[in-house]
Design brief:
The protein is mostly helical. It contains 13 helices and no strands. It has helices at 4-13, 18-42, 48-71, 79-103, 109-116, 119-130, 137-153, 162-189, 194-217, 224-248, 254-262, 264-275, 282-300. Helix 2 crosses helix 5 and helix 4 (79-103) packs antiparallel against helix 8.
Length: 311
C-alpha cells in the first residue's frame, strides 16, 4: 500500500471536478487581475524592471525544485527546446511584462490591463499571416468590436504622459504575441512538460530583466511594503496562479478558461477603483465590457487552444 502522503499527492495531481476547476480558474484570473494594481503600489519605491525581474526570477527559484523532481522522470530537453524556452522567456517576461510594468509609470492599472487584453485580437491577425489560419466572420466581427471597445475606453482623451506609456506597452504586445506563437510550437512538440514550460522561461526572462535593471535602475532602497508586494507577486500571483491555471486546464476546456481570463480587465478596474482611486466613465466601462465580448468571439473558434498569455 502506498504511503498516505503519496495518496494525497496523487489525489491532488488528479483532474479536479468541474466546479473545483472553475473555482481554480476564477482564482487564477483574480490573482492576475490584481498584478497591475500591486505593481502600481510598489512603483513609487522600486523601478519597474527590478519589480518584474525579481517577481519572475523568484517564481523560477520557487518552481525549480519541483521541476527538477519531475524532470528526473522525463527525458531532458535537447538543444533546440532550450533555445525555444529561452526565446519564450525573453519575449514574454523580458520584453512583454518588462514593457508592461514600465508602462505603468505612465498609464493607469486599468488602461494597462485593457490593452493587454487586446492580445487575442492581434493573435488572430498573426495566425492569419503566419499560420494561414483564415478567420471566420464571427472572429472578424470580434476584431471590429474590439476596436469599438478601444475607442470608447479612450474616448475621454489622453493625459500628457499616456502616449509614451501606450508606445511602451505596444512594444510589450509584440513580445506577448511572439510568446503565443513560440509557446504553441513547444507545446505541440510535447518534449517539455507543463512545469518546465512554465519554470524555465521564468528563469531566462526574469534573469535577463535583473541584469538589465541593475545598471538602469541601480540597487533599490525601499521600505518593507514594496518588498512584501514583490514577494506576494512571486509566490502567489506567479507560482500559485500558474499551478491553479494549469491544474484547472485538466478539466476545463480552453474556451472556458479563455472566457474567465478575458474578465481580467473588469477585475483590475474594480481593484484599481478601490486601492488606487482610479475612476472610469460610463463609456470606458462599456468599452471594457465590449472588449471582453470581442475577445470571446475571437477565441470561440479556437476553443481547442488554451489562452496564450497571463500576467
Amino acid at each position: 500500500m502506498k504511503p498516505a502522503h503519496h495518496r494525497r499527492l496523487n489525489e491532488f495531481l488528479a483532474a479536479p471536478s468541474h466546479p473545483l476547476a472553475l473555482l481554480m480558474g476564477f482564482a487564477a484570473t483574480g490573482l492576475w487581475a490584481s498584478s497591475f494594481v500591486l505593481v502600481k503600489l510598489a512603483l513609487p519605491h522600486i523601478g519597474p524592471l527590478t519589480i518584474a525581474g525579481l517577481r519572475y526570477f523568484l517564481g523560477f527559484l520557487i518552481l525549480l525544485p519541483f521541476w527538477r523532481l519531475r524532470s528526473r522522470r522525463r527525458r531532458q530537453p535537447r538543444h533546440r527546446p532550450w533555445l525555444m524556452l529561452a526565446a519564450i522567456g525573453l519575449s514574454s517576461y523580458t520584453l512583454g511584462n518588462g514593457a508592461a510594468f514600465w508602462a505603468l509609470e505612465y498609464l493607469t492599472a486599468t488602461a494597462a490591463s485593457f490593452i493587454i487584453s487586446t492580445i487575442p485580437l492581434f493573435m488572430l491577425l498573426v495566425a492569419a499571416l503566419r499560420l494561414g489560419e483564415i478567420p471566420t466572420p464571427r472572429q472578424v466581427f470580434g476584431v471590429f468590436l474590439g476596436l469599438l471597445g478601444g475607442i470608447l475606453f479612450f474616448s475621454p482623451g489622453f493625459q500628457p504622459q499616456e502616449p509614451l506609456g501606450l508606445a511602451i506597452i505596444a512594444a510589450g504586445l509584440v513580445g506577448f504575441i511572439a510568446f503565443g506563437v513560440l509557446g504553441r510550437e513547444v507545446a505541440r512538440a510535447r518534449n517539455v512538460g507543463t512545469l518546465g514550460l512554465t519554470a524555465i522561461p521564468l528563469g531566462f526572462g526574469g534573469g535577463a530583466l535583473l541584469l538589465l535593471a541593475l545598471p538602469v535602475e541601480g540597487i533599490p532602497t525601499a521600505p518593507l511594503q514594496p518588498w512584501l508586494i514583490i514577494l506576494w507577486l512571486a509566490v502567489v500571483n506567479t507560482t500559485v496562479a500558474y499551478i491553479l491555471y494549469n491544474h484547472a486546464l485538466q478539466t476545463l476546456t480552453a474556451l472556458e478558461m479563455s472566457v474567465m481570463l478575458n474578465l481580467s480587465p473588469i477585475g483590475t478596474a474594480a481593484l484599481a477603483w478601490h486601492l488606487l482611486d482610479e475612476r472610469l466613465t460610463a463609456l470606458q466601462g462599456g468599452g471594457i465590457v465590449i472588449l471582453v465580448v470581442a475577445a470571446f468571439l475571437v477565441q470561440h473558434a479556437r476553443a481547442t487552444r488554451p489562452p496564450e498569455t497571463a500576467i
